[in-house]
Structure formats: C-alpha cells, structure tokens
Amino acid sequence: MECSSLYKRRGLGSRRFHTKRISPQIHVVSSCSLDSMTSSPLLYVGELTTAQVVAAAVFVWLFIRHLSAKNLRHIPTEGGPSLPILSFIGLYNFLAHGREIIQQGYQQHKGRAFKVAMVDRWLVVLSGKKLVDELQKMPDDTVSSATTEVLEMPNVFASNWHKDPVHVPILRNLTRSLALVFEDMFDELSIAFREHIPANSDRWLPVHAYPVISTIVTRAANRVFVGMPICRDSGYVHMMVHFEEDVSKAVKLLTILPGFMKRAAGRNATVIDKRIQQCLDYLRPVIDDRMAMMAVFGKDWADKPNDLLQWIINEVVARNQGPEEVARIVLFINFGAIGTTSAAILHALYDISMRPELADTLREEVEAAVAEEGWTKAAINKMRKLDSFLRECERHNGPTIVSMFRNILQPVTLSDGTFLPKGATVVTPTFATHFDEENYPNATLFDPLRSYKSDKSVQPQLITTSADYVTFGHGKHACPGRFFASNELKAMLAYIVVNYDVKPEYEGVRPENLRRGLTNEPNNTARVLFRGRQVD
Ligand code: HEM
Ligand SMILES: *[C@@H]1O[C@H](CO)[C@@H](O)[C@H](O)[C@H]1NC(C)=O
Ligand SMILES: *[C@@H]1O[C@H](CO)[C@@H](O)[C@H](O)[C@H]1NC(C)=O
Ligand SMILES: *[C@@H]1O[C@H](CO)[C@@H](O)[C@H](O)[C@H]1NC(C)=O
Ligand SMILES: *[C@@H]1O[C@H](CO)[C@@H](O)[C@H](O)[C@H]1NC(C)=O
What we know:
By secondary structure, this protein is α+β, with helices and mostly antiparallel strands. The protein has helices spanning 2-10, 24-30, 35-39, 41-48, 51-69, 87-108, 129-137, 147-150, 153-157, 167-176, 178-196, 209-225, 234-255, 259-270, 272-297, 308-318, 323-353, 356-373, 377-382, 384-397, 431-434, 482-499; strands spanning 113-117, 122-126, 143-145, 205-208, 402-408, 412-413, 419-420, 425-429, 500-504, 514-516, 519-521, 527-532.
C-alpha cells in the first residue's frame, strides 16, 4: 500500500510535473500506478475518497445499473450473476480476469452475443465475424462510436468530442500527407535514437526500454504534429509523456467509479486546465502568430503552413474558440498517439530481441528497400515482412481485450436474433478473435511472417482491419491514426534493425505483459541490450 499513500500525500496527477527528466527512479515511482486496482478495486478508491462516500456510491450505482440491465436480461451474462448487488461479483471478476471471462464467453456463445459487467454499464460482446461485420455496417443513425466516451475523454478532457469528433477529419488529413511528412519524421527519430540509445559496437548497452521508446515516439510524432523546435524541447516532450501516463491512470480509475463521480474525479486527476496552460507555455507563440495571420489575411495567405497544428487551428477558429482549445486537441491527439505506439514498439522490441534470425531477415528486407527508394515512405511500403511481423505482434499483444466500442442509438435486431435495445454499449473481443483457430490456424504460434505468407489475393497489412483483425477496431470508426502509427512503427523498427543488434536482459526471457482490467500492456521496467552495428 506504499503506492497509495504516495498518491495521498502528493495527489494523483499533479505529482510528476515537478520532475524534469525521465529517469529510472521516477519510473519506479510512476509504475506503481494502479497496480493494486485489479486485485482490490475498492481499496484503491477508498484511499482516494472516504470509505463512506464510496460505500454509498457503490449501492447507488449497482441499483442504477441493475435498472439499466433490465432491457438486457435476454442476453446471457458471463463472469458472474446479473442480479442487483450480486452483479458486483461479476464486475470484480471482470476487472481481475477480463481476458479469461471474454474468452469463456466467446467459446460458449460463438456467433451470438453475451454481456459482461462494467461499473456503470454492461458491455454486450458480439462474438464471431458475422456479427462484427453486421455491427460495422450499421448506419450512423443506428450506432455511434463510443470509444472516446468509454475511454472517459469527456471527463478527462472536459470535452465533447464524443458528440463532435473534431479530431477525425484532422487525422484523415494527416493520413493523406504521410509521404510528405516522412522525411521530417525520419530525421527526428534518427536523431532521437542516436541521442537516447548511443550504443557502440564493442559492448552491450542496457536500455530501460519504456521511457526511452516513449521519448523517441513523442519526438517523432510531434515533429509532424507541432514541428521544430518544440518537438525536440525536452520540457515539452516530458510534459507530453507524463501527461499520457497520467491520463491512462485516470482512465483506469474512472472506469471503476460510478457515473456521477467521474467528472469531478477526472478533472481532479488530470487537472486538465493546468495541463493546457503548460502546453501553451510552448505552443502559444506559434498559435498566436498563426491566429494573427488568419485575422489579417483570412483563410489563406502565401506560405500558410500546411501541417497538423494549422489544421487544428483552422477547426478551432471556425468554431470561434481560442488557443486553449488548440492545446486541448494537441494534448488529446498526443494521448491517442503516444501510449499505443510506444506499447507496440516495446512489444516488437521484446519479440525481436528473442529472435536474432528474424532481425537478420528484416534487416535484409529493409536494406534492399532503402537501396531502391532511400529512406522514404515508398521504401516503408516495400517492407512487407516487417509489416507482417508488426501485425503478428499486435495480434498477440494488442492494447485492449475488447475494441469497437459502439453505442446503440436505435433498437436493432441482429441476424442471430439478438435484440440490442437503444442505449446498449456493444464491443467485439480482440484476443478471443485473434486466437480463434478458425481465423488463425495454429493461433498460439507466433509466426512473424504469417500475413506475408498469406494466400489471400490482397495480403493483409498492419493497417488492414477486418472482422478477424480488430486491434485498430474495424469499419468507419476504426482508429483514424493507424496509418500514421504504422508508418512511424515501421520506420522506427527499420531504423532499429539496421543500426543495432538487440538482445533481452535475461537470456531467453521475454518480459511478460501486464494485464489489468480491459488493458494489456508491455512490461515497463524491463531493459533491452543494444549494440551498435557497424554501418558506413
Ligand atoms: C499501435 C497504435 C494504435 C492502436 C493499437 C490504436 C487503436 C485504436 C482503437 C482500437 C481505436 C478504436 C477503433 C474502433 O472503435 O473501431 C482507436 C481510436 C482512435 N485512435 Fe488509435 N490506435 C493507435 C494509434 C493511434 C495514433 C498514432 C493516433 C493519433 C495520431 C490515434 C488516434 C486515435 C483516435 C483520435 C481515436 C478515436 C477515434 C474516434 O473518436 O472514433 N491512434 N485507436
Ligand atoms: C483532488 O486532488 C487533490 C490533490 O491534487 C487531493 O488533495 C484531493 O483529495 C482530490 N479530491 C478528490 C475529490 O479526489
Ligand atoms: C486538410 O488540409 C487542407 C489543406 O491541405 C486544409 O485546407 C483543410 O482545412 C484541412 N482539413 C482539416 C479538417 O483539417
Ligand atoms: C501447425 O503447426 C504444426 C506443428 O508446428 C504443423 O505441423 C502444421 O502444419 C501447422 N498447421 C498450419 C495450418 O499451419
Ligand atoms: C518486468 O521485467 C523486469 C525485468 O525483466 C522484471 O524484474 C519485472 O518483474 C517485470 N515486471 C512484471 C510486472 O512482470
């Protein structure tokens, strides 16, 4: 309980901004986070507020949830009883053993739906490709994306993006510009790698992988998001990395609080207004300049920048909002981009450190592509084995046990006869789908070249979503950042295999993943050994 007393003393959220650098010590502090949550969710909340408030809240929320479960009675429950109060057992089970419960439900109800208990809602889980495809095809007036809402973005960011997803068209613009921004991104990540992993060829350098990788990911992404020199400013980078960590923790905390406590707790945990001001410390001069130009010249002028920051400013100005809103969106897009991408690289790094022969294969492919195309997006597109490896990493180590959160806006009946009432929240299982032998023969086998060897006429890539590959969700609300993510991931991994040899800290041991609640995360304390390769 050392961990919780630490929170109590310093307060969740405001804690880490006193520190300027990411170092292993801070990391030890930050990694104690909500570890205790899965084992004793109540105890944890008890540390945060008073026991009485929580006890009262528990009864109120169980009662409310019981009422809202009435119209879902026809859908079988997994992981515990659906009776009032007793359904708390289901919630507890789900937080502790979510992946197993979903797996069980998937096997038992394949091709149909079942439900599991979350704190303030039930999740209706659709198992089987047919239902997932039906869900994916439903029109906008029947289902809406619930991702930002379920991830507590309205409470954490005090935003209404779940109703007005301003970020989606902006990220689509980013997808269209990937070839243009590649050179900058690659420039930034190579400089960052050299700076943060200065390995030479005569000895193995142990690297605490998580903080280093998130720093490099953040720099490379922000070179594209907000440009030079801010993306390289260590204050800005650390602010973003810590902000992402704080939000992730806040999200985990909020998912175990009842609805009426979320907003206050969310704002208290992330202190979003303060974070916006901290972000503006770096961005305000640029934003002010650009807004002044817009005030004078209108929508267009010679040399108007065409970058993500400008697209955000365009949207904000069109809504008559100010620089604070620009910062809020920059923070949000960073939240979407940093943790997910860093986790994916870490998994890939842990996996490749165990397989030197795979590193050789990928290196050959990368070197051939770069010899033809230089370090460009065109070269990245040719790295099909590398892509296949990353896709397999995400199949085995995706970030959540369910995805495709959708709200049912109009009552609808699925082809298996399942009735989904208005207001239900629907998801699809990720791991259960990805480990289904019907979808992936020898599913538990980690086969890096699985999709490279695919006999489908169009080889699936990392960014290709389908009813049997839902790491990025599927359908029109699938992750809008995945094209950017794939590009950044492939560029980083290509850089790694060409410039370093890697091996695990303990021979033959891949650091285990951490499963908590809905999430599956890479070990964030492990080290990876790097040795520089002689490149001329
Ligand atoms: C490996 C990296 C990533 C993974 C695994 C991932 C996964 C996901 C998933 C599963 C969803 C929900 C999709 C659905 O409901 O169908 C999502 C949504 C989203 N992602 Fe990603 N993502 C990644 C990278 C990124 C990046 C780099 C960005 C930003 C540049 C980003 C921004 C977003 C945003 C803003 C949404 C919400 C879209 C909405 O409002 O509907 N993601 N992501
Ligand atoms: C809000 O955060 C402060 C510290 O930042 C803490 O002292 C306080 O107890 C928190 N309040 C609630 C309701 O969580
Ligand atoms: C997309 O980019 C174009 C310029 O290339 C810009 O005019 C437009 O406002 C951007 N749209 C969004 C939604 O950001
Ligand atoms: C599954 O693995 C076994 C043994 O590793 C192999 O003999 C078999 O061909 C594999 N099946 C498929 C469909 O890949
Ligand atoms: C993460 O890895 C380190 C070193 O490999 C190990 O000591 C630690 O116990 C691991 N943490 C978890 C939670 O598995």
